[in-house]
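--- STAGE predict ---
source: upstream dedup step, 1 unique chain passed
mode: sequence only
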Amino acid sequence: MKNPLLYPDGKEPMIFDTVHREKNIQNLRLESLVNNIFLGTQFSLSVEELYNLATSDAETINYREDMIRDLISNPQLEEAFFEIPSTLIYLKEYTRKMEFRSSLICQVGLKYRRLSMYAKVMNSLRAAFNNPSVKLTSQAIKHLQALVDKYYDKDKIDEMLNRFKDVDASWLDIRSVNLGVNLKNGSSMVNMVIAEFSPNPYDQSSVFTFWRKGEITGVSNLKSLPNIANAGLFQTQVMDMIHERYKKPINELKSICNRYSADGLKAFEELGEAFSFYAGALNLIRRLRNRGFTMCHPVVKPADRFFIHAKEMYPIDLALDETVNTIKNDINFDPKGKFYILTGANSSGKSTYMTATGQMIWLLQLGYYLPCDYVEIAPSSSIFTTFSGGETDNSEDSRMCEEVRQISEMLPNVTSNSVIIMNEPLTSTSPLEGSMICRDLIKKLLEKKASGVIATHFYELYDLLPEIEEKFPGQTGSIITVTKPDPETDIAIRTYKVKEDAPQKKSYALEVAAVHGVTLRQVVHRLSDRGLKLDVNSDVYKKLHDVDDI
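--- STAGE serialize ---
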């Protein structure tokens, strides 16, 4: 059964990208992205679980984004909503630990905990929904409101809260239990002794400081437990002893709990995936906004072909890193189809730009807010990523063969709503041959009306663009990562800005080498500092470094 908080009424799930999932998770670093979504919270969904919720349906995407907008626009409702997944996760773990304990005190405690936490969540939600300042527009949030309204009176929440208001840890009249444990060599347990029940909390809990002054009160005859070297086996007996001593208040609490059901809690548990889904979205928005970054509600338009116009997009992982100055960039893919070649110096931000683009599209397919100032976008049906990699374990598969195999598997599944992101493909062949293969590939993809970007150091590919433009006018482009050479040093200035322009046709590999101290200039200087001299042809030296002085 579909989740009504995630899918509009009458709308069946439209699965996104079932073909290339594993490659996208790896190439777009989606594991890291999902970790950032849930970081600092008790709740989480795996990257596979989130991928299963991705959709190509614009109506479903808008349905979820409107839910997020309602939550972040109403702080009281947002805070109340955050209690739901935390409560469900706590109760799931608490139930796992307690439900198979035969002791009456465990069973009563379990039911009381479930009822009391459920009642508090329902009360917080009801208060938020009844607040006149809370404005609701989304259908998903109204479904949650209807759920609260349906079960609040049915489950007698107000009466339950009044009954439970004085019932907390004191309902057993116990604040502390003093246990004595004897250990033998190797720290294995010999036996355990209940030394005391106390109505007062202990001031200290350290094993070195728990001794208390004065007489022990509460239990006149200390009770030794069997000599079994396993702490778990003692738990039931300890609970039985506590139950026996406090039989009357336990039975009274049991009688109170039996008055109430928690049908609404069962309904909440059935929607648990949605609660974690939205709580993760809210958490990511909070963390990025605390760092001064905007997460925007995208303008989502249904269309037969993918397109995107985004202003000031940024990579999430860098934005959350306090040690990094994060650079924003624009993205534009025309509705009629567009294929860019992306060139630039080594380490100038090409891979980061493409990864951030792919992550933003994937977040859109989830129905999340997006990391940019403004974006107008049509959903994609699939993302295909091919990132330059090594050879496979099969000795017969060269790097070239592996890349060609991935491309041949991709092509039959590409549609007009597909996005293709390729990072330095076919680099194991010659620049001219690699460029020609990329040219033919771009033609095939444009024939399918797809959009995408290829990052490459094959500057020859740029010279082949006019041939593609002749058949697909206005559907190709050249973007570069802007790098400015510093005439005073061997290290170029990388701006990490991306703009439409012709390739600079320089990879600045020398400057990358300079960062690691292995340029010829640096070697000569280090040798000179040690009193050694390396004869280098002056003309060669000048040509290598493109400077006037030696």
